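Thread: Newbie trying to understand structure tokens

Hi all, I'm a second-year student working on a class project, and my supervisor (Dr. K.) asked me to get a predicted structure for one chain before our next meeting. I've only ever worked with sequences, so writing a 3D structure as a token string is new to me. If someone could post the tokens and maybe explain what I'm looking at, I'd be very grateful. Here's the chain:
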Amino acid sequence: MARLRHTDWPDRLWIVRHGQSAGNVARDLAEAGDSHLIDIDTRDADTPLSELGHRQARALGEWFADMPHNQRPNVLLTSPFVRAQQTVHAVADALDIDRDEIGVDERLREKEFGVLDRYTVAGIRATFPALAEQRALVGKFYFRPPGGESWCDVILRLRSVVEVLRRDHVGDRVLIVGHQVIVNCFRYLLECMDEKTILDIDRKADVPNCSVTEYAIDRDRADARFQLQVANFALPLEEAGAPVTAEADVPVGPR
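---
Reply by user tm_fold:
Sure, no problem. This is what the structure looks like when written as tokens:
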């Protein structure tokens, strides 16, 4: 695997998936009942955190607040989706950062599912059998449902976010709050992965809600590299007594 050779990076970067959402809960109920549609009355962008999700977000904020002041995040960026903003607001409040200083960036939004939005796995197979077959053939990395995005589409928009990090946030300590696919697609970019490597990681487990994936650079080293420190670190929530959850955001057919 290649290594990032340039040093114009933030000192530290945390990428976090939002807390458990009401959509996660509704999806689990739909899957358990073998329903074809997820029963929720908000659009995906407006779906809030569940009660547990709020607890997870507060626990995450407390974990960051326990860090020495000069090691905490000083730049907060988030997806515009409500569940991500609620998560980052809990962190901002814990760190005494004004919410108006949070950067809301549409490039960090959830992957768009197009016509498959709100359908369960069973619902996709029953309603869109041709799309389910195409996805199985093409693979989730390249498959783009009508009106939606592939993983490659998400990676394309995140490439410009990476350039902003290297241009505007060198030396900063940046926290990004996004979604499961956002976490994995950032890993693909920042760890110079290929399709097989990131899909193997994705296949093993979902990204836990409010888990931390961290990158850092040791500028005191002659061969300083911006590199992974920890992936999908859920211990902060366990220490704070908030249960860890790892449901997928929205099912999009067989894994």
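A couple of things are worth pointing out once you decode it. Residues 151-168 form the longest helix (18 residues). The first strand starts at residue 12 and ends at 17. Feel free to ask follow-ups in this thread.
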